[in-house]
Write a structure and sequence with these properties.
By secondary structure, the protein is mainly α. 78% of the residues lie in helices and 0% in strands. The chain is built from 22 helices and no strands. Helix 4 runs antiparallel to helix 20 and helix 11 packs antiparallel against helix 12.
């Protein structure tokens, strides 16, 4: 699928200057552990909320902000974090983001009040936004051919697995109540891991001195773009995260409308920056990369449907089926295993089939979602169903590979930031829309099992829209080959 020369395929990893032979796998493990921590903290706090409420006497709004603060600052600053890595060096920004994430995790774990915890959660999300774009950028810049595709497959599996592990780990840590720390351990667990990565990173990650000089020569951070894109994302994300709990107030709808205005302003500002010889936050040539836009559309529905499925199913498993947080998390293990199986082995298929399996995977996920309601009684059939859904959504690493195949090296950071922002926003949209539908149906019927029928239909529609985008990607195979040559 990548249409690269045999020399490129065999090269695999671009070695870091001064690194030992074979350090590529160790470097990948280090950067993906950082990614894993950031994904983990999106979800691990959820199961700790009941004990947190009691310990800090937190209000409902305070609990919402503990969860949402991280997601909001993370989504708003992702593209900016990617550009900072491009300007100052990806390894340097990865270490800066990792250090900040470790410190803010410690601060969250020691927070004395709800207010301080909310502040530290916003800062923790900002740290993650600085850290995570460097992961995909370093994969894009330091791995090629089959090694890059495999790295992206592991990357996608880490994202999917981190969501489930967050649920399970949160339940285990809170239940264990280590040293009487209760909910605080879900944050403090990051500290030793972060310190270990900060020790290992300088020894194994590729140096980026030459790259950062090249980055500085291309211009500074696009401040006008930042000042218009950040409020556009912020005004869009906040009402979606908090809308249902607050019964969709008028300010929420006004915020969504204002986000459209700022998005339009962002487009105009970026055109002006480009016309005056500056470097826009999101260069137009990135969007013109073959396959990038339809890949973004597909990623809008893949992670979105997965996040919504996890959110609604967890509520159902812990609600009407009365499972513990740990058991409900373990129920998704077949899904993650199937996802990883596809993500790590799709290149074994004949190259002519690589893009073709994208719509097939989404169609399989759609069929699985259609059975969510009928199989909502739980048990082995339901867990097998999660495996079918994971098997279908396992095509997401292929989508990311297609999206990045024809992106110029100089635009790797911008493309990475765009893909990560789309994936993050898709999860927020999926949870806000399908999650609201599920909560509304369960409240009106008094049954989460009944709500699973409507939820399954909504998830099916999302997967079918992803199928359509996948068909577009599959049909672009020939033009993509020409572009690569």
């Amino acid at each position: 699928m990548l249409h690269m020369t045999q020399a490129t395929e065999t090269r695999g990893v671009v070695p870091a200057r001064g690194s030992r032979s074979g350090a590529g796998g160790v470097a990948l493990a280090v950067i993906l552990l950082g990614q894993f921590m950031s994904i983990l903290d999106t979800n691990i706090v959820n199961v700790a909320l009941p004990t947190l409420r009691v310990d800090l006497d937190a209000s409902g709004a305070g609990l919402q902000l503990v969860v949402a603060g991280y997601i909001i600052s993370y989504a708003v600053l992702l593209i900016t974090g990617a550009r900072l890595g491009d300007l100052a060096g990806h390894r340097r920004m990865y270490h800066a983001g990792l250090a900040a994430f470790t410190l803010t995790s410690l601060a969250c774990g020691l927070a004395p009040t709800t207010g301080t915890l909310v502040v530290f959660r916003f800062l923790q999300g900002a740290s993650a936004a600085l850290l995570t774009p460097q992961v995909m950028s370093m994969i894009q810049r330091n791995f090629t051919g089959a090694a890059r595709a495999r790295a992206l497959g592991i990357y996608a599996a880490v994202i999917a697995g981190g969501v489930v592990v967050g649920q399970v780990a949160g339940g285990l840590l809170v239940s264990a109540d280590l040293f009487g720390m209760g909910w605080r351990t879900v944050f403090l667990v990051n500290v030793p891991v972060g310190v270990g990565l900060l020790f290992a990173g300088p020894r194994v990650l590729p140096r980026d001195e030459a790259h950062e000089r090249a980055g500085r020569s291309r211009g500074e951070l696009d401040i006008p773009g930042l000042l218009t894109l950040s409020p556009a994302v912020l005004l869009f994300v906040v009402p979606l995260i908090m809308g249902h709990e607050l019964d969709w107030p008028l300010w929420g709808w006004a915020s969504l409308a204002a986000s459209v205005f700022f998005l339009a302003a962002f487009v105009l500002v970026e055109r002006r920056v480009a016309a005056t010889g500056g470097r826009p936050l999101l260069p137009a040539r990135v969007l013109r990369s073959p396959g990038l836009v339809p890949a973004c559309v597909a990623l809008l529905f893949g992670p979105g449907s997965w996040a919504a499925f996890l959110f609604t199913t967890t509520l159902h498993l812990q609600g009407e089926l009365r499972m513990s947080p740990v058991k409900s998390g373990l129920a998704f293990v077949p899904c993650v295993l199937a996802f990883g199986l596809v993500g790590l082995n799709w290149r074994r298929l004949p190259p002519r089939l690589h893009r073709a399996v994208i719509p097939v995977g989404f169609a399989l996920a759609a069929a699985g979602y259609l059975c969510v309601g009928p199989l909502a009684g739980g048990g082995a059939p339901y867990e097998a169903l999660t495996g079918v859904i994971g098997f279908g959504l396992g095509v997401m690493p292929i989508i990311m590979t297609v999206a990045l195949t024809h992106v110029d090296q100089r635009d790797a950071a911008d493309a990475s930031g765009l893909l990560l922002t789309v994936m993050q926003l898709s999860q927020v949209i999926g949870i806000a829309t399908v999650g609201t539908l599920f909560l509304t149906l369960s409240e009106s019927s008094g049954s989460t099992r009944h709500a699973e029928y409507g939820t399954g239909w909504a998830l099916t529609v999302m997967a079918l829209l992803g199928t359509a985008a996948g068909v577009f990607l599959a049909r672009g195979r020939v033009s993509g080959a020409h572009a690569a040559s």
